[in-house]
Amino acid sequence: MTPLRLAILISGRGTNMEAILRAAEADDYPARPVLVLSNRPEAQGLETAANAGLSAVSVDHKAYGKDRESFERALQSVLIEHQIEMVVLAGFMRILTPWFVSQWTGRMINIHPSLLPKYPGLHTHQRALDSGDAEAGCSVHWVTEGVDEGGVIAQARVSVLANDTADTLADRVLGEEHKLYPKAVALAAEQIRSKKKPLSV
After folding, report:
1. 82 is an active site residue
2. Which domains does the chain carry?
3. Can you state the percent helix, strand and coil of the chain, rounding each to 5?
4. Rounded (10°) angle between helices 15-23 and 166-193
5. Catalytic position from the list 61, 82, 112, 123
6. I need a surface site. Which of 31, 58, 134, 139 has the fewest CB within 10 A?
7. Whether the model pTM is above 0.85
8. pLDDT > 70 fraction of the chain, expressed in percent and rounded
9. Residue 117 burial by CB count (10 A; 0-12/13-18/19+): exposed, middle or buried?
């Protein structure tokens, strides 16, 4: 089967993007990154993407004020222009409107730094520490209208250590994200390519 044309949406450094790009160098990887798209023109990951030979495009959300859907329609135009078949959110720090989500239902995934359904939203590591959890981790899930509510594709776990802070825990979870996300992208791409209804959407 032909690899899916993949867009990766970022807002910053793009370390998960880099992990996916490395994995996608394999001949049998089911998705081919062709576009990196950011809502921040200064995002460091755009330079990384351009150096890797990908189209690196920014659509500055600030130019659209509070009109989130107009911003997303501009994103959508770029995605259509590049004939994108699957969207991966990799540190894309925008809550998406129902309109945009509906354009990509069953074809867009996200990574979140908690063991969903625990701790959707922000400050996940501190919340895990405050709750006295023995484990923390990360989850890759299908994107739905509810924030971090879509069906989970894969998870990775780390033990919470007695001397952990939110920062030390975040660092260890990020290391697991870099291993988990490329595998989960491949799993999701295989589902999309086989034209089966994605699980748990």
Report:
1. no
2. 4-193 (3.40.50.170)
3. 40, 20, 40
4. 40
5. 112
6. 134
7. yes
8. 97
9. exposed
